[in-house]
User: Fold 8-oxoguanine deaminase from Kaistia geumhonensis.
Amino acid sequence: MADRIWVKDPIAVLAEGAERGVVVEDGRIAELVGKGAEPSHPVHGVFDASRHVVTPGLVNTHHHMFQTLTRAHPAAINKELFPWLQALFPIWAKNVNPENFRLATRLALTELLISGCTTASDHQYLYPPGLEEAMDIQAEEAGRLGVRMTLTRGSLNLTEEEGGNANAGAVQDTDAILADCERVIARYHDASDGAMLQVALAPCAPFNVTKRLMVETAALAERCNCHMHTHLAETRDEIDYCQHHFGYRPVDYLEEVGWLTSRAWLAHGIHFNDDEVARLGKAGVGVSHCPTSNMVLASGQCRTKELEAAGSPVGLGVDGSASNDNSNLIEAVRHALMIGRLTYNAESVTHLDAFRWATGGSANCLGRKDIGAIAVGKQADMAFYTLDELRFSGAGDPLAALVLCGAYKADRVMVKGDWKIVDGVPPGVDLAELRYEHGRVAKKFLEAV
Assistant:
């Protein structure tokens, strides 16, 4: 792209004072062009956005990309979380390897990008023997596609035999986990503005990691200035597990292990009572709302409005592609609106709320101030959607139409000022070949039933 580009005259743009578009310069938003205005300085090129509705690039705060290999798996469909995990853990532990993990990551990142997602975070907690370089694989795949990524170094170290629910074939020694966390941070964590890769540390959940791992992870994150992530309060079974094994509820557990901090963001965060919501908000703990997975597994309804009001950043996640079962973040925006209205009412949750969760809210969960909005100085990460399909015919409000009429793909996506999706596809990626190769390796997971 030229040095200074005017994204000119979109149908609508999710930003205040940008009716005539946005000027991009050196990978950043340099100027918003208001109604009736022209750019204040000369531009080197113009992109005609008159067919497009423009939003900030969507930000995904929770995923399990390896699970694209077990979508709609016969052993796991029509189950809630704990029996679903019991069915799939042994299959994952025995079959995930570097080759199929790379393809799973590539497929998930490509899906996300096509949906309008420009920044992804994958909670990669599964480490069977041979997959020790999972973070390196994901860093390579994110770089190949040009997607920003938080490499979320997850972990398991508490098996069924030890009172947890992790499969013995997928756990690691605590010291090995912490050593690799330090390695990944040293190699990939870039805290600078505009970073393409950052690192977060992510023990999986109270029911499959030890307290020691949680405590030492918190200390390491503090020392290395990075964020932390874990599942919490996703199901009532988890509440019962914490009360039975620890003698208290999940938020008390979070406080005991040193995670009641704004460095932390939690996946799901469904079953919090009023006092817990207040405590989380006061500490600035973020919550990744995963509406699609929550509905598929019948886990419950996140208290998004109360959490935000209390002070917690609320972001959006697609969750694992075996509990969604896809990697489409604009679809999750729609699901967040629908489940939000069912939880509250039609006036309390709007399409703008759902977009906020998927953009600025998600960016706040990841601890990023440089993305998540179309504003001067922010990174030039934007998604461009058309309204050409039949589903949009007759729509009055273009931004609301993306959500209410069910947009499912972007026509163009820009990351750091560069086009990463053009005419609905990533340049240089053979989607048919990717589909074939991923499907080929996924067949082994079906044979494992």
